[in-house]
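User: structure tokens for NAD(P)-binding protein, please.
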Amino acid sequence: MSSSQRILLVGAGELGQAFLPHLSTLPNTTITIAVRTASKYNHLIDDNINIISLDLSGPSSDVAKCLANYDIVVSCSGFGQPAGTVTKLAEDVLEAGKQRKEAGKSPVWFFPWQWGVDYDITGDGGGLMPLFGEQREVRNLLRQEASQSHVKWTIVSTGIFMSFLFEQFWGIVVRQENQITVRALRSWNHKITVTDVKDIGKVLARIVAGDVEGKDRIVYAAGDTVSYAKLADTIEQITKGRVDREEWTVAHLKEELEKDPDDLIKKYRLVFAGDGVWWNKDLTVNYKLNMPVMTVEDYARELLS
Ligand SMILES: NC(=O)c1ccc[n+]([C@@H]2O[C@H](COP(=O)([O-])OP(=O)(O)OC[C@H]3O[C@@H](n4cnc5c(N)ncnc54)[C@H](OP(=O)(O)O)[C@@H]3O)[C@@H](O)[C@H]2O)c1
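Assistant: Done. Predicted tokens:
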């Protein structure tokens, strides 16, 4: 690690704020948070944390010039942005890398917003999720152009956020008065990888610290990887009550989507009934570094008991 490392954290929402405590305790590191309206985030300013205003949708020349001031760029700027946003950021980072090369500085180390599933496998979900398809193209862009642009990159695949698995609107763990319904996407044997956002922050900090080789590759994290049968069993055990089980097959999910073709959650469910949404825990950075992380059982116990 260089003696003074400058990290730009783009975005300070759910992920950015979960990352801050872990990044800010790294030695010899200063963190700059970039958001559109800096004044909304003054409470986050600390000894080694400052804030600037930056709009990623602004002119690429301005964004790249700003990014070039940092050794590491971590994107936490959300997922709900217009098409093309994640590609534009990747292109602006490539330009920033070129500027740093000309100035005789070290490469930019880029962590794109890929805190999710394995987009190489999901692709665009058969046309259902253009954004997932764009994420795969960002991977291809980095694989093809990062090296010549003086950019290092790390993609951290995390699965869905732990909290998301238990959201009522997701429809997988549904609580109604004293009754809980657990639903399986595709089948009871199908699996899902989930990671708590604080644990993603812990994994990120260990990668940045160089405790695991992360540059120019995709690495994996997992708080847990569970089958839907295991999820239902765990919840039944914790609540000591009967859990209703309902299997949402691919045919059922397709029928449901046909009723509301624009329903994003229904599209998501179909994509999550497919491949690329789970991996074995022994592949993960947290497993290799023997890091304690929150499991589905831990989370369910806190939420439901
Ligand atoms: N793996 C998963 O489970 C998964 C998958 C897909 C989506 N999600 C969703 O992802 C979200 C969490 O991700 P997150 O923390 O990255 O997003 P977030 O909570 O929506 O926060 C986004 C941050 O980026 C800033 N920002 C937004 N647009 C910007 C721009 N053009 N320029 C500069 N800054 C910008 C926002 O600040 P300002 O608005 O103040 O600028 C905010 O601080 C959750 O809503 C989660 O449900 C999760």
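User: Anything notable?

Assistant: Residues 161-193+224-275+294-304 form a domain with the UDP-galactose 4-epimerase; domain 1 fold (CATH 3.90.25).
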